[in-house]
Automatic annotation (TrEMBL):
Superkingdom of this protein's organism: Bacteria
PROSITE patterns assigned to the protein according to its UniProt record, in alphabetical order: GNAT (PS51186)
Protein name as it appears in the record: GNAT family N-acetyltransferase
Pfam families linked: Acetyltransf_1
Domain N-acetyltransferase positions: 5-143
Organism lineage string: Bacteria, Bacillati, Bacillota, Bacilli, Bacillales
Gene Ontology terms for molecular function: acyltransferase activity, transferring groups other than amino-acyl groups
């Protein structure tokens, strides 16, 4: 039996599904009001994937203009598909959905970050035309000074 896959933009009504999926993705449980507020006020693009009308994955992207570059700059910042829904092309559909919106906004290049040990994600991204580069990714946690 073929299952129906649908991709659309997330709305505030999807907040509970996004909370659940994000918890599965990175173990961070967000509050309902925080997610609704983010979806209402942020310029972040959040695509949501459904398998037979059940939310099974999401992808997030941001784009902006910097004086350093002539074109809009974009990053796909998060991507997750529930384990039971994998290997159906959902990640590729999410990528294509977000890329089309970015293209319409005038973005010419997209960057994304994933772990070098995440072989499944690397294969998916490569199959969708992404090229691995040897960039250093550094992270620093800023503490609040009183």
């Amino acid at each position: 039996m073929n299952k129906q896959i649908t991709i659309r933009w997330a709305t505030q009504d999807d907040s509970e599904d996004l909370i659940h999926l994000n918890d599965l993705f990175n173990g961070v449980r967000m509050e309902l009001n925080e997610v609704k507020e983010s979806l209402r006020t942020s310029s972040e693009l959040v695509a949501l994937a459904f398998l037979d009308h059940r939310a099974v994955g999401f992808a997030c992207a941001q784009y902006f203009k910097s004086f350093c570059y002539p074109d809009l700059y974009a990053e796909i910042t998060e991507m997750y598909v529930s384990e039971h829904a994998r290997r159906r092309g959902i990640a590729s559909l999410l990528l294509g959905f977000i890329e089309e919106e970015l293209r319409e906004k005038g973005v010419k290049n997209v960057k994304l970050l994933t772990g070098l040990k995440n072989e499944t994600a690397l294969k998916t991204y490569a199959a969708n035309g992404y090229i691995i580069r040897d960039d250093a990714v550094m992270k620093k946690k800023l503490s609040n000074h009183s």
